[in-house]
Structures are given as C-alpha cells and as structure tokens.
Specification:
The protein is mainly alpha-helical. The chain has helices at 12-24, 39-52, 55-67, 74-89, 95-108, 115-127, 129-132, 134-150, 157-169, 177-190, 197-210, 213-228, 235-255. It contains 13 helices and no strands. The protein starts with 11 loop residues before the first helix and ends with a helix. The relative contact order is 0.06.
C-alpha cells in the first residue's frame, strides 16, 4: 500500500484517507485477489485506522468486508480490536465494552481470539482507567485474563503490564489506583508470571508519583528483587527511584 510512504509526512488521519482512496481503486478489474481487495489489504487498512484512532472508518471497513463476503481472520479482528485502546485513551467510556463485543463477534464467526486479540482488548480496559475508574477497568481486564486461561492461552507479563500502566496513569486522580497497582503486582507473583523491567519500573514510578509509603520504604528491595530475577534496571527505573527518594527526603524534611 502506497500510504506507507507517507508515514511521518502526513498525519495519521490523512494516512487513513489516502489508504481508503487506494482501496477504492482495487475494483474487480484491477484486483488480483478474486473480486475484491484481499484480507491482507483490509487487515493493513484496519491497522492504519487503529493507529489513527479512526473508529468510524474501521467500522465502515468491517461492514464492507462483510458485504463483499471477505472472510475475516484473527489478524483482521485483532487489528480492529486495537482501535478501542486509542478510543479509550481519548476518553471514550464505552471503548472496553466495544472491545468485548468485538471479541464476541469473533467467536460468532468461528474465530478463536489469540494472545494478541486479548492483549488488544485488555489495552482498551487499561486506557479507560481515567474515564470509567480503575476498579471497573481492572475488573474488566481480569475477566479477559480469566477468559484467556479458559481458552488455553498463556498469560504473560504483557497484559498485566498493560493493566498496571493503566492504573499507574491514574494514581494522581484515583485514590484506589495505587492499591490496584500493588494487587496486580501481587497477582503476578502468586501466579508465577515472569515479571519484566517494565513491571517493576511502572510500579515504582506509580508509587513515587502517588507518594506511596510502600514504595518509599521498600523501593530498594524491589530493585534487589529485579536483580535477583536477572533483570537489569534501566534509566527509567533509576529515574523512578530518584523521584521516590526525592519525595521521601521532602517528606522527612517536613516532618522535622
């Protein structure tokens, strides 16, 4: 698709417009894929819509695929699911529920969601923590994690990190967000899920911004735990620890 050449030169929305016009040129007389653009073209187009946050266009493309009897696959649906994370980040309170509906549509047409499908749906929950509240967003995310296990899929640190990051973004406005961060961290430990540098860094940074005493008192233990697990703290980890120590020093000074 030629719209890839415009990446960086055009806004994401303009890229979608160019892509849509490109697809319109793929009529039966020009297409090499039976009587319509192939599933690969549509999947790529849905991916562009997701990056642009072009939900209306994505819905239109899904309808077009159905009207042209283009058999959808897990890749196209997963690309479609990605758009709801963007929508949630823009304040759409319905984004997580739209993602759940899309997963049900997948199953209705005989497609089994994979790890990427679920991760995209969980991202829509994480992006909505500031609009529907952390507790509601995490409840939806946990429901999806449970569905992954029922489907025989491995739950890794990736979806947990996504939920953790969603809660971390809300710690300064949601009084329960930091507790949920710790709960997600504890769940990973209880389920023996291999944590990553992102897991620890996100937790420490959230605690530093929230002024959470658990981070102020036990931050160094978390760093040691990282090292013991073979994880090397990076510059973002140390920046988060620095913020925690600065805050601790300020609090100690105020107490004195």
């Amino acid at each position: 698709m030629e719209y890839v050449l415009y990446k960086g030169a055009l806004t994401a929305r303009v890229a979608v417009d160019h892509a849509l016009r490109a697809v319109e040129t793929l009529g039966p007389e020009k297409s090499t894929f039976d009587d319509s653009p192939s599933i690969f073209v549509y999947s790529a187009l849905l991916d562009v819509c997701a990056k642009a946050g072009a939900e209306e266009e994505a819905v239109s493309i899904m309808r077009r695929m159905k009207s042209e009897n283009v058999q959808q696959n897990v890749v196209s649906y997963s690309a479609y699911l990605s758009i709801f994370a963007t929508a949630g980040a823009r304040g759409d309170r319905r984004a997580p529920y739209k993602a759940l509906e899309a997963l049900e549509e997948m199953r209705a047409v005989g497609l089994a969601p994979n790890e990427f499908s679920y991760s995209s749906a969980i991202a829509s929950c994480a992006s909505a923590t500031t609009s529907i509240g952390c507790s509601a967003a995490v409840d939806l995310g946990r429901m999806l994690l449970a569905a992954m296990l029922r489907d025989g899929l491995e739950v890794t640190a990736v979806p947990y990190n996504t939920l953790l990051a969603g809660c971390a973004r809300a710690v300064e406005r949601d009084s329960g967000a930091m507790d949920l961060c710790w709960q997600l961290f504890s769940e990973m430990q209880e389920r023996s899920i291999a944590m990553t540098v992102v897991t620890y860094t996100t937790l420490i940074d959230a605690g530093a911004r929230a002024g959470d005493e658990r981070i102020l008192e036990h931050g160094m233990q978390l760093l040691q735990q990282m090292v013991d697990q073979g994880l090397a703290p990076n510059v973002f980890t140390f920046n988060a620890m620095f913020k925690a120590h600065v805050l601790k020093s300020m609090l100690y000074r105020d107490v004195k």
